[in-house]
Amino acid sequence: MNCIRILKLLSHAAAPVSLTHIVQELGMNTSTGFNILRTLVQEDYVRFDPQTKVYAIGLGVMDLVRGAATVASDINLVRPLMERIAHDHGVTVTLWRRISADRMMLVLEALGTGNMRIKMDVGQRLPLTIGAAGRAMVPHAGLTEAELLRQFAALRWDRPLSFEAFMAEVEETARRGWALDNGNYALGTASVAVPILNPQGGPLMACTATMFLSQFDEARAERIAGALGEVARALAPALPHL
Question: Structure pTM?
């Protein structure tokens, strides 16, 4: 964490700064700050001027930026496809990425063209097991039933369901290959989701279509799930880099 704080400070500094300035700004022990900076200099993430004894952000950070830009570029390849699905079916299409053992984050969104649309915020984070996206990921997550129960107990649903009902829906998701949330997560809405698995078979992402409940019927949900599967297939070549 201190390493990240130092990099953030240097990236926003208008000019190179001294060790004293860094540790005072961050409330850090001097020896701790020095040791972290020495490692960052060795890795070229920080540049040190031995004459003036000041530090600045290094060119090695560009490797991280290029890597992040590549991931963002790979994900954005499916934006036109998501927009087409959103337009054709009048739904909001979202791409959720698993970011930890129990959390996922919205990384991409495409809105439908209706007079009223469901809007979500890119960067929004949710519990891994909630909604249609959660049901899509859970069968592949390798979680024990005890861990699933622990995560499930912390969820907040608009229309709650029992753990037994949730697990039955997870099993149905595994059987048919796509998940459904019929107004449990958010009243008045329904969501369909398909999992996007990493090369090892674990859940990397889920692509979800969310609609107003008045738009929902089983046949339509199945058609939308088929369309969302196109997103998963389109991302397949990029999966080793994501």
Answer: 0.71
Helices 2-12 and 30-42, interaxial angle, to 10°?
Answer: 70
Rounded CA gap, 239 and 137, in Å?
Answer: 16
Q: Please report how many Cα atoms fall inside a 13 Å half-sphere around the Cα of residue 215, on the Cβ side.
A: 21
Are residue 16 and residue 95 in the same domain, yes or no? Answer: no
Q: Which domain holds residue 27?
A: 2-62
Cβ distance 173 to 135 under 8 Å?
yes
Q: Are residues 89 and 197 in the same domain?
A: yes
* Residue recorded with tokens 């996206």: 133
What confidence category does residue 61 fall into, taking pLDDT thresholds of 50, 70 and 90? confident
- Residue 139, CA atoms < 13 Å, CB-side half-sphere: 24
Q: Which among 154, 139, 63, 73 is positioned nearest to 107, based on CA atoms?
A: 73
pLDDT digits (tens, 9 = 90+) for 118-141: 999 888 999 999 999 999 999 999
Residues 119 and 44 in one domain: no
CB 190 within 8 A of CB 180: yes
Query: Residues 6 or more apart from 113 whose CB is under 8 A from it?
Result: 86, 87, 90
Element (H, E) at 104: strand 103-110
- β partners of residue 147: none
Report the 3 state secondary structure along 221-234. HHHHHHHHHHHHHH
Q: What digits encode the pLDDT tens for the residues 194-211?
A: 999 988 888 889 999 999
Handedness of CA 201, 205, 207, 210 (dihedral sign): positive
